Amino acid sequence: MSDSALPPCPQCASTYAYADGAHLVCPECGHEWTPGEVAEDDALEVRDAVGNLLADGDSVTVVKDLKVKGASNALKVGTRIKGIRLVDGADGHNIDCRIDGFGAMRLKSEFVKKA
Question: What is the three-class DSSP state of 47?
Answer without folding.
Answer: strand
